[in-house]
Amino acid sequence: MAEASGKYKQGDSPALFEFAKRARDYIALLTQHINKENNVLFPMGERVLSAKKQEELVEAFERLERERIGEGTWKGDRLNFRENLGKAIEILKECGSDGWLGKYEKELALLS
User: Fold this and answer.
1) Which residues in the chain land under pLDDT 50?
2) How far is residue 95's CA from residue 13's CA, in Å, rounded to a whole number?
3) Nearest to 81 by CA among 6, 37, 20, 30
4) Is the whole model's pTM more than 0.70, yes or no?
């Protein structure tokens, strides 16, 4: 996407369509990933892990974020994803990809 974006900024108009294709593919990948987490993995974890173990895991993830990743990083990733999805929607509008717009505008609304 970065390469296509750079080409487009340098005046290579067809690169906009390559960017849009890659943006759609990336959005589809993230949508599938999030769907699998929310509808398969998290419910599975809730079924097999006790409430105490779930609390311990939350504490461990929070500690890991604080000590190694940086506090607030996950929240920032969500904000970056929302911002990038908004940019992708604008590009899809420029390309005339109206069929994709409604789908990804709904995804963006879910993140708000």
Assistant:
1) none
2) 10
3) 30
4) no
